[in-house]
Amino acid sequence: MRLAKHLAHAGVASRRAAEQLIFDGRVTVGGKTVKDPATDVDGSKPITVDGRPIRGTEQERAVYILNKPAGVVSTSRDTHGRKTVVDLVHADRRLYPVGRLDADSTGLILLTDDGELAHRLTHPSFEVPKTYRAVVRNPPVREPALRKLREGIELDDGRTSPAKVRRISSSELEITIHEGRKRQVRRMCEAIDHRVESLERVAFGPLRLGNLPAGGHRKLTAAEVERLRAD
Which residue in the list 24, 40, 102, 193 is annotated as catalytic? Predict the structure, then answer.
């Protein structure tokens, strides 16, 4: 792994800031100052920044995929005593949800202790796609309504970016967006007079929910995490 990437995954700084630390001669590998951010490291030699050993490697970070059931809230803790997504994943570390789903919605949500990755997946500038299956009222959903979703919908907090929309049946749509506004898909559907009956997130970036059962979770493989970082 490249040194700058290693530092970022260890939580030292963002990738760009880590590169600058290296350029400035503030990083050593195996006791020697290294000024090339592309230097390969494998964790076998101690790494310091300003003389202090860094903690953690990529292997110490964890990312879990969870199929959130209805009624569970997408927070680390809830003041009203409701069950949270964190309660459903038994890990040896403190995890944080990545990309919220409202309590009534179900499907794919990620939990991690990797702050840089969480930022990478949720900040609007990265435009990470999220795909939902929505069962709506007042079928069928006709082509003019689909066209509005594809062109962008005017909401009370501004116009949405164009969405990718596929009609699965007269009452079910697959909608892909890369924004993250509160209850966005529900509000978009309401704006075309097709209120959402049920909403499930089936994909997040390159990851798909697959056959993971409701309430089920698993730890992502290193390859899956790398795909998330690179997507």
Answer: 102
